Amino acid sequence: MNRRGLIAKLMAVGMVVAIALLGPSTAQAQAATALTVYRSPTCNCCGHWVDHMQAAGFAVEDVVTDDMEAIKTQYGVPEALASCHTALVEGYVIEGHVPASDVRRLLSKRPAVLGIAAPGMPVGSPGMETGDRVDPYTVVSFTANGETATFAEHP
Description:
This protein is α/β, with parallel strands linked by helices. Helix content is 34%, strand content 26%. The protein is globular. It starts with a helix and ends with a strand.
């Protein structure tokens, strides 16, 4: 075998090894989870939450709207759980500054709920960082018939 043939054969073997190690579905396994966020054009903290979700690997569609009340009504967000933005991911509603780790846990557990919410705008939650201050807050799950339960506690 000549040198050119040997190089071609080694390259082919290298490609087979690379595919075996990386797997053909590596890109699919790392594909970002699609998340649609509805937010007001005047809310800066919502943009910071979007950045948090993108940094956590979500593919965010950022929808700016002047009628957040209609969005919350359309997707069944209870008034008592409302925050400044509403997101949709794989059939769930995410209300407010919920950490990406809670969203990932929701998607892995797939509980029979409409969504999860971090009511209000808790200081120190993703997008609401202000220095070192972090106020304790609770992320709650909610159902279409208004039932709520603690989903996660954040110190």
